[in-house]
Design goal:
The chain is built from 16 helices and 22 strands. It is an alpha/beta fold.
């Protein structure tokens, strides 16, 4: 969200979103003056809209502007492609704009209903990667109208963006569940500010502080909240850190999800959407194994569900700019002068933006079938080295000359490249853009009950087996016994 000082504003894009911003700025009268629209549309250039001149083409007129130090540009073209945004950003920087803001992508704008509070400083994730798919949120969220919706991990990167988009769902209540007081406070405050400024609809917001590891509490809270729909994004996600804390990873991710599923089935949740990761495919880390087992938990719950229940899984790869991910790390390294550190020159990952991933998750949640696993189409994998070089250039610096790139070797639990599918899985079109339905043809099913019985005394104190409690080596031994990819990885086999 934005904080403006009173000054001169140039709105890039004279379409409906740009016009809406101009009207709002003029009506409030405290955020400065819109002195011009900049646009490439010949039919708009030379006109006055809201008594504001439309200048263009952008590349020609921007360099002729006489800018003041406080002047700001607001890019208000929610449907712009990545390539077009890169070009506009380059033009604005060359013209001398130091302050450039952007409206969120089209997936977050409902029927062109843009608001000033949604603008924020442009950053690398707005320019990198492919152009996000356009999702009609108003129609895709219709299944949530009037419903009580619970988002676990609501203070995290994925959870908080789901909540922002859910403001437009027409839900009666939106429960923001998380164990971090500060992060839940922040997203609750942000959503209330968005609502005050006219973004979305007036769902009742209910912040809920709690821990999924507490089975009794999770059961109690779901009994009282009477949620219709659950989006489960809560998880410990940082791979190397979870390698150092393997018991915490299994306790939180696996047993926390098990607690949530049990409470959801007991207290009438109609639709349960579980978020998972490509690291659950042929997992080589404790985190990956925990998410693999969670997928199995949800699908087993689906197999035993009633006709009125739907349990489903949505899997995708990395998202740009999430907490603890590579992009914020690169930003900090660049801002301190480098070097940027990379595991391996050939390391690749799939990436999509957080808003696009969340829009597709919400769409899948509405069209998904019980017992289904969906995969978001991630496009082509990106070399981490290429991503680092692009980010360095975003800051106007030269890779290797201004900012060095250093290779530091594999960290615990990392692969050279991730897979989106097991060899036994077959993707097919779902009928919705960039959402694939996955069929599993693997006949060698694992016994979840046995695994969880073996893991339980490691994660929860059992007076009859006190020696097993928090025994990380025992936990890893159990995982090696049941998950062959993890067994091979810990034996020194490198997954490419």
């Amino acid at each position: 969200m934005t904080t403006f000082k009173s000054g001169r504003l140039y709105i890039i894009g004279a379409g409906f979103a740009g016009q809406t911003l101009a009207i709002e700025i003029k009506s409030k009268g405290i955020f400065g003056e819109v002195v011009a629209f900049l646009d490439d549309d010949p039919e708009k250039i030379g006109r006055r809209i809201e008594d504001i001149p439309v200048l263009g083409p952008i590349k020609d007129v921007a360099r002729l502007l006489r800018l003041h130090p406080a002047d700001e540009a607001i890019i208000a073209i929610p449907s712009a492609s990545r390539e077009y945004l890169k070009e506009i950003y380059r033009i604005l920087k060359e013209a001398g704009f130091e302050k450039i803001r952007i409206l969120p992508g089209i997936s977050q704008i409902i029927d062109g209903d843009a608001h000033l509070i949604q603008t924020r400083s442009i950053d690398p994730q707005d320019l990198l990667g492919r152009t996000p798919v356009t999702v009609n949120l108003r129609s895709s969220l219709n299944y949530l109208r009037g419903k009580r919706v619970l988002v676990t991990g609501a203070g995290g990167s994925i959870g908080s963006e789901l909540c922002r988009q859910l403001l437009s769902a027409g839900a009666s209540r939106l429960y923001l569940f998380g164990h971090g007081e500060n992060s839940i406070y922040q997203i609750d405050r942000e959503l209330r500010l968005l609502q005050d400024e006219g973004v979305g609809e007036k769902a009742i917001l209910v912040p809920v502080i709690g821990d999924l590891k507490d089975r009794d509490y999770v059961d109690w809270i779901l009994a009282h909240l009477k949620a219709d729909v659950v989006f489960n994004t809560a998880a410990y996600k940082h791979v190397p850190m979870m390698e150092e804390n393997p018991v915490a990873a299994i306790e939180n991710n696996l047993f926390g999800t098990d607690n949530l599923i049990a409470a959801a089935k007991r207290h009438g949740v109609k639709r349960f959407v579980h978020i998972t990761t490509d690291k659950a495919v042929e997992p080589v880390s404790v985190y990956g194994v925990s998410k693999y087992l969670c997928e199995k938990l949800v699908l087993e719950a689906a197999a035993a569900s009633s006709p009125h229940e739907s349990f489903m899984v949505v899997r995708f790869g990395n998202v740009l700019g999430s907490n603890g991910s590579i992009m914020p790390l690169f930003q900090k390294q660049i801002e301190k002068g480098g070097p940027v550190t990379i595991t391996h020159p050939e390391m690749k990952r799939w990436f999509m933006t957080i808003p696009e991933a969340c829009s597709l998750v919400l769409e899948a949640g509405g069209v998904g079938e019980n017992s289904a696993l969906y995969l978001l189409d991630m496009g082509d994998p990106v070399k981490i080295q290429d991503l680092a070089e692009q980010m360095i250039r975003f800051y106007g610096l030269a890779p290797y000359d201004d900012i060095g790139i250093e290779y530091i070797g594999f960290r615990p639990g990392e692969k050279l490249g991730e897979k989106l599918l097991w060899d036994s899985e077959t993707p097919s079109p779902s009928g919705y853009d960039r959402i694939l339905k996955v069929e599993n043809n693997d006949s060698a099913a694992i016994n979840l009950n046995v695994i969880m019985d073996e893991l339980l005394p490691v994660c929860r104190f059992d007076p009859g087996q006190p020696e097993k409690y928090r025994d990380a080596e025992l936990l890893k031994s159990i995982l090696r016994t049941h998950v062959s990819s993890y067994e091979q990885a810990t034996a020194g086999v490198l997954y490419g």
